[in-house]
Amino acid sequence: MSTQQPLDAVIVGAGFGGIGSAIQLKKLGYQNLAILDRHDDLGGVWHVNRYPGLAVDLPSPTYSFWFETNPSWSRMYAPGPEIKRYAESVAAKYDVRRHMRFNSKVESARWDEDDKVWQVAIADGSTVTARFLITATGFLSQPCAPDIPGLADFGGKIIHSADWDDSYDLDGRRIAIIGTGATAVQLIPELAKKAADLTVYQRTPIHVVPKQDFAIPKFVQHMFARVPVTQRLFRWFTDMQCTLVFLPAVKYRLLRPLVSSTAKISSLQRFFAIRDKELRKKLSPDYDFGCKRPTYSNEYYQTLSKPHVRLETLGIERIETNAIVSADGTKTEIDTLVLATGFDIWESNFPAIEIIGRDGRNLGKWWRSNGFQAYQGMSVPQFPNYLGMAAGPFANSGLSFFNMIEYQTRHMDRLFGELHRHNATSFEVTDEANAHFCDRMDKLQRNTLLHLGNCAGSRSYYFGPNGETVLRPTTTRRVLAEQATFPLNDYSFS
Ligand code: NA7
Q: Whose CA is nearest to atom 2 of ligand 1?
């Protein structure tokens, strides 16, 4: 397929970032869109991830579009399938589903300077041409399998958390799980409910704090629907909760004691849940709370103290056809191996597709030789008419993905408004504006937990291969405010 007339825009990714940017483009008057996604339905991570226990790790009122609040969240921390349904309902209501093309894996996008369009190549050999390119490829979309000798020869069932096999019955299985990140913290209690025995292979312990989760009663849901201001108020409260967790990480120099008090809460939770001192010690992180993504559970520690659950911390030497062998030679026979080993962010996600801008600049290569960077977390010099939505360098601010989408769509609003005022066809951030922005981020980062805290032993995906970090080192409020004030001449229009 090759379109003759260029589309207004191609959006890569049909998750919440893609849905949010499509809604914004339509609001701006662009109707001729293609939202391309390699999977067979919308929802991004909420379509792909289906493991037992999957739930959002933020209060659901905060984890939703600010313009489309959902009065019907069943729980404070909504289960995964409910979030997927929310994505479907938003896409239907704002009529963006009809722009979506599934099973369309985008391989590359190249700026065509003569025609001032992006040529977007799809894996099936077709090309789509568009004036604007938006990547909304997310942050956690490239699953990682561990490089452990013998893994390929394992004779039982292997399931990655991001590729769950719903038809596989876990009842009475001898299960091992590798990884103790946020996914495993949700998954382990569910596996333990079914397994005959469960062995958890931990490389780095994680701070787990109590989850204030509860069912939202029906009468409250009705009140939210009938009197929307009550829901707004509730959201304000859950937003503040998230801010309180995030703020000490950004203002670490000032708020360091808050970081250690949260670590103490995690340690108290371990103390009350686990009698065995040795086990408690093995589960105690030796890095600051916040170096890794905050993790919430009321069941994780309790599960690890159950008689049929065992924690292994010595490291894995090899995998055999029916067993895992630990570094001390202990052999654990299993029939099911669950990989909760996370995602590759730095190698295959920045960017997720090959993007070639003006004068042949290759975004991935340029980032790797000049540092990962994007003005306001969105645009890069020599990449005209391109916006990286969720989630490139300096894009992530606060804990909720939706905060990021909100400020990014506000950015689009002003940027495209200015494009129209200039009667121009293309925009591009200037080198000076980008350099100034990156310098500012660099300075602000020096006050954050990731730079000043004790993160050395955390093995956190917040850090890149050279120890770099690209989380936005400012509060969500500040990032939102900047979208109303960034100098419009930070962009050139032609
Ligand atoms: P994470 O947070 O990246 O966790 C991956 C886990 O897998 C982590 O405990 C890793 O240990 C472990 N891992 C990875 N490779 C290995 C090998 N080779 N051997 C042993 N252990 C290994 O991914 P999640 O899926 O849990 O969470 C991703 C996000 O989803 C989360 O932040 C939320 O936003 C939702 P390590 O810590 O590297 O020692």
A: 181
Q: Is 459 in the pocket of ligand 1 (CB under 6 A)?
A: yes
Which of 355-364, 392-401, 415-424, 446-455 has the weakest average pLDDT?
A: 392-401
Please identify, by atom number, the ligand 1 atom nearest to the C-alpha of residue 180: 9
Q: Is the CB of 295 under 6 A from ligand 1?
A: no
Q: Please, are residues 107 and 121 in contact by the beta-carbon 8 Å criterion? A: yes
For 56, the enclosing helix (H) or strand (E) is none
For 271-301, how does the pLDDT look when each residue is reduced to its tens digit (9 = 90+)?
989 999 999 999 999 999 999 988 999 999 9
Task: Indicate whether 3 pLDDT > 70.
Answer: no
Nearest-CA residue for ligand 1 atom 33 is 182
Fold agreement between 7-142+345-493 and 151-214+252-339: yes
Give the model confidence (pLDDT) of 143-165 as tens digits: 999 999 999 999 999 999 999 99
Q: State the architecture of 7-142+345-493 in CATH terms.
A: 3-Layer(bba) Sandwich (3.50)
**Which residues, in sequence order, are CB contacts of 479 under 8 Å at separation 6+?**
397, 398, 403, 407, 472
Choose the residue to mutate in 183, 297, 404, 461 for probing ligand 1, maximizing ligand atoms within 8 Å of C-beta: 183
Q: How far apart are CA 252 and CA 258, in angstroms?
A: 9
Domain spans, the chain = 7-142+345-493, 151-214+252-339
Determine the atom of ligand 1 nearest the C-alpha atom of 182. 26
Rounded to 10°, the helix 218-226/228-250 angle is 100
Please identify, by atom number, the ligand 1 atom nearest to the C-alpha of residue 461: 3
**Check: CATH 3.30.565.10 for 151-214+252-339?**
no
268-277 residue pLDDT tens? 889 989 999 9
